[in-house]
Amino acid sequence: MPKQKTYPLLSDAYRKAWESCAALWPLFILRFVFLILNFGTLFFCLFLVCWPLLQALWKGFRETGGQNFSRYMQSMDWSGYLPDSNSILMAIGLALLYITWWSLLAALFDGAVYSRMREHQEKGSLFSLREFFKDGIRYLFPMIGLQVLWSLVFLGVVLMGLLGGILAALLFHALSLVWLGILLAIPLFFVAIAVVIALAGFGLLAGAYLMEEKGIIFAMRQAFNKCLEGYGRVVWGILLVWVIYFVFSVAFQAVMNIFGLIPFIGFLFLLAQFGVNLFFSVAIWVYMPALAVVFSLEEEA
C-alpha cells in the first residue's frame, strides 16, 4: 500500500512567511515607495490630459475670486473641452506609457521581492538594498514575460466565463426558466470569485518558481501542479488569507465610518482609516509573495 503524502500545516506556512516579512522589513518601505511612484505617475498623466480644462477652471476661479465660481461654471462653454481626436490620441498614448511604466516597475519590484524572500528562507540572508536592485534587474525581463503570459491566461478564463454566462442566460431565457438561471447565478458568482482568487494564487506561485531560473513555462507548470497538490491545499491557504483580509477591511471601515461621524474629532478617525488601509494594502503585497515562496520551497513530510 503506497504511503499517503502529508504536508506541513498551513499555520506553519503562515508563520514562516510572516517571519520572513519581519526579517526583511525594509521591503514594506520599498512597497510604499512603489505605490507612491505608481499613483504619482497616474495623477501626473491625468493632469496632462485634463490640463486645458484645469487651466480654464483656474482662470475662472481667479477672475471671480472664488465667490461666484459656481455661476461661472454654469455659464462656461463646455463644448470646447469635449474629447476630440487629438486629446483621445494623447490619452491613449499616456495610458500606454503608464502601463509600460507600471509593468517595468512591478516586474522590478516583484523579481527583487521573490528573490530576497527565497534567499532569506533558504540561506537566512538579510536585506540589502544593493542586492534588491541587482535581483530586480536580473529578473526584470522574465517577470515581464510572466506578467504577459499570466494576463493572457487570466483574460482567456474571464472571456470564457463571460461567454458561458451569456450563452447560459440566453438558454434559460429561451426555455422560460429565468428564475432558475437567477438561482444558479448566486452560487456561480461565488465560484467566479474563487476562480479569480485561484488565478491570483497561481500567478503568485509562478513568480516564486521563476526564481529557480528554469524558464517561464516551467514556473507556470510547477505553479499549476502545486495548485492541484493536496486537493488544492495551497489555493485554499491563499484564499483563507484573502478572506481574512477582506473581512477585516470591511469591518474596520464600517467601524471607522461610524466614528467618523463624531463632531470635531471624526476626521481623526477618517485619517486613521486611511493610514491603516494603506498599511495593510502595502503589507498584503509583501506577505503574499513571502507565502508563495514558502509553498514553493516546502518539502513533503
List keywords for this structure.
301 residues; mainly alpha; single chain
Helix content: over 70%
How many individual domains?
1
Shape: globular
Sketch the major β-sheet: none
Order of helices and strands: HHHHHHHHHHH
Measure the end-to-end span. Answer: 17 Å
Poorly predicted sequence stretches spanning 5 or more consecutive residues: none
Number of strands: 0
Average pLDDT for all residues: 82
* Helix segment tally: 11
Fraction in beta strands: under 5%
Estimated structural class: mainly alpha
Report the radius of gyration as a whole number of Å: 24 Å
Detailed description of the structure:
This protein is an all-alpha fold and 301 residues long. The protein has one domain (10-297). The chain has 11 helices and no strands. It has helices at residues 10-23, 26-49, 51-64, 69-75, 85-123, 129-138, 140-174, 178-209, 216-228, 233-259, 266-297. Helix 2 (26-49) packs across helix 11 and helix 8 packs across helix 10. The chain is globular. The two termini are 17 Å apart. The model has no long low-confidence stretch (mean pLDDT 82).
